[in-house]
Amino acid sequence: MITWYRLAYRLGLTPWEWAGQSIGAQLTALLDGQDAPPAPPGKALDAGCGTGSHTIEMARRGWRVTGIDAVPLAVTRARARAEKAGVEATFVLGDVTELEKSVGRGYRFVLDIGCFHGLTAGERAHYADELTRITEPGASLLMFAFGPGRRGPLPRGTDRAEVERTFAGWRLISDVADAGLLPRPVRRGNPRWFHLARS
């Protein structure tokens, strides 16, 4: 999957970037809502950060935020975007299945917009273990993911049962369907927001 993402960035075929504007509106509502993750200050991680738009939003909110992505071009663009926005954020080129050696520990909030749902079953298990290792007790994970389905080279998605099974050391706080804010092609993937808290 990572080879496909690297090629997509090189060719400029990144539909998740334009969809990210609508996702950002939902993200803002969730961050400000009743079941919101903990408020900053503290360490936050944007897993699969892409070109950094959500990382920058978290930095603006006061988090000490690190974005990690496996695509060099995405990380380069994220650093340039943060500099232009005048915010402090760290961007790391790395593998989300090996988080501790790339980003360290002590995180209170993790944002995952489309990272988990694109991983293989084995990668998902490693990723969940790494998130548990690098976060503090009570930390929050806010995850955007498509529902399960066959989409060719696109992410295969996930569902509530798999999320709860994979993140066994976490408690599911909410499972929220798309509120109709996303573009129609994105809504066809049955997108959901999962909010979990680490035990």
UniProtKB/TrEMBL annotation:
GO terms classed as biological process: methylation
Domain Methyltransferase: 45-138
GO terms, molecular function: methyltransferase activity
InterPro entries registered for this protein in UniProt: Methyltransf_25, SAM-dependent_MTases_sf
Family annotation (Pfam families): Methyltransf_25
Gene3D superfamilies from the UniProt entry: Vaccinia Virus protein VP39 (3.40.50.150)
Keyword vocabulary terms for this entry: Methyltransferase, S-adenosyl-L-methionine, Transferase
SUPFAM superfamilies listed in its UniProt record: S-adenosyl-L-methionine-dependent methyltransferases
UniProt protein name: Class I SAM-dependent methyltransferase
Originating organism: Rhodococcus oryzae
Lineage of producing organism: Bacteria, Bacillati, Actinomycetota, Actinomycetes, Mycobacteriales
